[in-house]
Amino acid sequence: MVSSRARLVGATLVPLLLLTACSGGRPAVEDVQAGLTASGSHFPVAEQQAECAAKILVASDLSDADLQVVADADPQAELSDEASSTLARAQVQVLADCAV
What we know:
The chain is mostly helical and 100 residues long. The chain has helices at 4-23, 29-37, 50-59, 64-72, 81-97.
């Protein structure tokens, strides 16, 4: 038989785990890399620069939501107003650091 303490712990952890699963978090470098080379990319780069550029974007100040838009490469999705300046700075860094 399950103790009331175990039920209490389970009742507390299940919603927390569900919330964590739904939040998504920051996209992985691999996901951003795929979005950078996809058709409709918000931040297109050459295939040879994609991994380097993805690392720069993941380390940048882009919000998780804006980074997800880049990773998804959905031309219908919009980036936030704040993303424009961050992407401009990232583009300069990509040109400097990711030259092929």
